[in-house]
Design brief:
The chain is mostly helical. The chain has one helix and no strands. It starts with 24 loop residues before the first helix and ends in a 14-residue tail after the last helix.
């Protein structure tokens, strides 16, 4: 999981590499679907 070549997941997140495209909506929302607001902090206000 540390290899530079495995750094391809949903976005630039290495820990999402083995997961389906539906992994953590907020993660793919940040990089893939710009329309979806990341629910990290912005969604809470």
């Amino acid at each position: 999981m540390d290899k530079p070549e495995e750094k391809k997941g949903v976005g630039k997140f290495a820990h999402t590499k083995g997961h389906p495209p539906r992994v953590a909506s907020r993660l793919e929302g940040v990089v893939k679907n710009r329309g979806i607001k990341p629910r990290k902090k912005k969604g809470r206000r």
